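Structure in, sequence out. Go:
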């Protein structure tokens, strides 16, 4: 940046970010967007919106100034009425992708990031201690606090549902394969693996903390895959279950620093027989950090909100780490950023490796 003015203008955008974020999200939460949507573009005054949402007309006007400025909503001076503008172009799928992220940023990030500096300084998720009196990482906390699991889980399921068709398109499974989904959360990855890979006699096992078992089994029943999917409870740092041909590790290695990534990869290597395969799916930093928004999100998210460690790496780094842990890397592919919807934040990579010797 060449001038102080350009730098100052950037700082202004950073100062305004959290306020804009909550103003927009609140308009959804207050029902203002739904009411305007229900009115089918006819236009509503602040008083009509207020009557329909139960908030004061003055507050409606204040909350909608920003949305009018951003062309999300239009305002007709002559009739003093509001109608959806930019937002009306978003499909239910678009909103189903964006809104879980916004809710997660509110519930998981905004409050905890107040303590980012302390979390980085101490290597602990200080926000969890301050807000919940909880010592540990976010994933442990989410098993105890349903509102954290609900908000984060909706975002995670959305990311998994979005990325998994690409992931499974790159996954080769033989008939009769026994697949282990390491850190498989409440089983969505196992369900999708079974659905996407139409091979004979496939069995997918979700491995995660024991607290996830009940919800995972319920998910398997709800999707009618209970005979093909199962659950093992445990901690990956204690041991990785044996007896599987293929191990999937999705959205997990990025949560840890190098030392712990090596512990996980070595644990998986030990659990597999020679010839066994591992498929890693991770958010990655592109070789040119400026080409995506990954670094805008992940460092603060991992250090301040969830783990107080970890964060994505470049795909070339993951390849080196897998080789260092005994795998022969057979494939490494990155998502094509230009083919992704503009709101999508993580850019993913898949790295596939084979255990070639004991
Ligand atoms: C970011 S989520 C990824 C979930 C899933 N793989 C997906 O792609 O949707 C990380 C998962 O790791 C699990 N996890 C965290 N630490 C773990 C550990 N030490 N052992 C087993 N699972 C763990 C969490 O419970 C959580 O479900």
């Amino acid at each position: 940046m060449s001038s102080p003015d350009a730098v100052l203008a950037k700082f202004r955008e950073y100062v305004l970010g959290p306020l804009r974020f909550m103003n927009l999200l609140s308009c959804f939460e207050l029902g203002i967007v739904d009411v305007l949507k229900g009115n089918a573009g006819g236009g509503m005054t602040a008083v009509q919106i207020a009557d329909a949402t139960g908030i004061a007309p003055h507050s409606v006007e204040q909350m909608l100034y920003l949305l009018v400025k951003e062309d999300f909503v239009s305002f007709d001076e002559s009739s003093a009425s509001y109608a959806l503008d930019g937002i009306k172009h978003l499909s239910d799928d678009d909103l189903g992708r964006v809104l879980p992220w916004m809710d997660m940023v509110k519930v998981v990030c905004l409050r905890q990031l107040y303590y980012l500096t302390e979390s980085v300084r101490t290597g602990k998720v200080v926000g969890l201690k301050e807000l919940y009196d909880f010592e540990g990482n976010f994933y442990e906390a989410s098993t105890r606090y349903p509102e954290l699991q609900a908000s984060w889980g909706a975002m995670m399921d959305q990311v998994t549902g979005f990325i998994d068709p690409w992931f499974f398109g790159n996954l080769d499974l033989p008939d009769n394969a026994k697949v282990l989904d390491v850190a498989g959360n409440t089983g969505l990855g196992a369900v999708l693996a079974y659905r996407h890979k139409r091979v004979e006699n496939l069995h997918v096992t979700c491995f995660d903390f024991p607290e996830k078992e009940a919800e995972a089994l319920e998910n398997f029943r709800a999707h009618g895959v209970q005979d093909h999917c199962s659950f093992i409870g445990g901690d990956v740092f204690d041991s990785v279950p044996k007896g599987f041909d293929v191990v999937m590790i999705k959205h997990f290695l990025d949560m840890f620093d190098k030392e712990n990534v090596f512990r996980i990869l070595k644990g998986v290597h030990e659990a597999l027989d020679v010839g066994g395969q591992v498929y890693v799916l991770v958010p990655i930093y592109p070789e040119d950090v400026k080409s995506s928004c990954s670094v805008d999100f992940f460092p603060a998210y991992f250090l301040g909100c969830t783990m107080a460690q970890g964060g994505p790496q470049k795909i070339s780094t993951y390849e080196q780490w897998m080789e260092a842990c005994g795998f022969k890397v057979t494939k490494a592919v990155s998502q094509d950023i230009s083919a992704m919807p503009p709101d999508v934040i993580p850019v993913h990579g898949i790295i596939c490796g084979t255990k070639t010797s004991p």
